[in-house]
Amino acid sequence: MNILITGANGQLGNEMRRLSGLYPQHQYCFTDVEELDICNQEAVNAFVKDNAIEVIVNCAAYTAVDKAEDNPELCDKLNHIAPCYLAEAAQAQGASLIQISTDYVFDGTAYKPYTEDQPTCPQSVYGRTKADCERDIMQICPQTMIIRTAWLYSPFGNNFVKTMIRLGRERTQLGVVSDQIGTPTLASDLASAIYVAINQGIKPGIFHYTNEGVCSWYDFALAIFRLAGITNCAVRPLHTEEYPAKATRPHFSVLDKTKIKQTYGMKIPHWEESLQVCLKEILTIDD
Questions:
Q1: 23: annotated active-site residue
Q2: Global pTM?
Q3: How many angstroms separate the CA atoms of 144 and 138, rounded?
Q4: Dihedral (C-alpha) 186, 54, 85, 187: value to the nearest 10 degrees?
């Protein structure tokens, strides 16, 4: 198949690129904004048609959650309007679209993991643009698979894991929010799941994928320090109110993964197991 991966320089896009060698039966077009501006509808249509694209995996997104509160138009352009262009191009070409979405489409007031069919109620600009995207692209291109994920990290780019390692080495104490509960997701695990979907057959609809298990950001930070051997920085739990941020975060956003596991026969690693894998690579790079 001819596969287009947008946002190829981001965390997930980089992992899609790295894992592509395992699937040489496909032809790949890895693009970022320099090669293809997904906000340019004409460019998107021409690229998809000229390269006879059969699957689009959209890894591009505006992910600066707090900045989005001050830049709602830009956030909407990247997270909502541009994916609609991809959906229109996919539909015209008879291609499938895989769109990455987020736990931020929920308000976080639940007490058990969210299933795919629960109503969305985003509390931030970022969450709203993602929810609007979900609604519209499925109407434009019925052959769309939406994968909601959460707390993504990898050896690439900026993310919570790399920030904690840096701050843990720089400081003697640190406060981390303890009343926001979710599940970290290693980008390479999500990329593997996407390839499973492509190779077994893309099923339209909404799916959830994170690593297994549940934790708070505070728990996550403690695990990072323990596994990275950082011992000189004390971590203090904070309430959300003590760490003011422009965008409202969901207090509980654990995603139920039953659907994707049953549909594709997936075994998903626990978040701490995957964190160990990632830290080995990050610490090797640092050394």
A1: no
A2: 0.97
A3: 6
A4: 0
